[in-house]
Amino acid sequence: MRKCMIAMFLLVAGLMVSVFEEANAEEREDAVPVMQAVPFDGEDVDGNPVTLQDYEGTNMLLIFFTTWCEVCQQELPMLSDNYEALQEKGIEVLAVNMAASERKETDIEAFAKGLQMPVVVDRDGRIAKSYGVQGIPTTYAIDEQQQIIKPFYGPLNREQVLQAFE
């Protein structure tokens, strides 16, 4: 019953994502439509609960990845190396592993142990599906009001992350 309620909640939340607001073009030259981040709940690699609401009031990067993705193998360690510096600038990083797309689920924990940032395991793919992830890595810059202010498709670097939150 609980799973059914969660699925219905995610379906409704996913439908809400389709409602866009216009970005203020005067403030941002590269203005993109702003949309609300989709609430989710999941577990980290240690089985601890993680929700989007845990990051309310905080700028964050939400990164979707797999362990076999070559770009992810370079990007996530780079972001992990910069994790503390990003936190000092008020940016949290949360990586979401797309477990349903993994070759071996046993690879997830070993990969996550090498990262400083928390890793959520999306075992059934519902988190990635609710965000419309079609390729990896896909990253969303989410502001303090939990609005997606910038999507990144493919590799990104520290400078791009910082610029997204200026």
From TrEMBL:
Coiled coil: none
Entries under Gene3D superfamilies matching the protein: Glutaredoxin
Domain Thioredoxin: 31-166
Keywords noted in UniProt: Disulfide bond, Signal
Pfam families reported in the protein's UniProt record: AhpC-TSA
The protein's name: TlpA family protein disulfide reductase
MF terms in GO: antioxidant activity; oxidoreductase activity
The keyword Disulfide bond is annotated on this UniProt entry: yes
Signal peptide: 1-25
InterPro entries per UniProt: AhpC/TSA, Thioredoxin-like_sf, Thioredoxin_domain, Thioredoxin_ResA/DsbE_sf
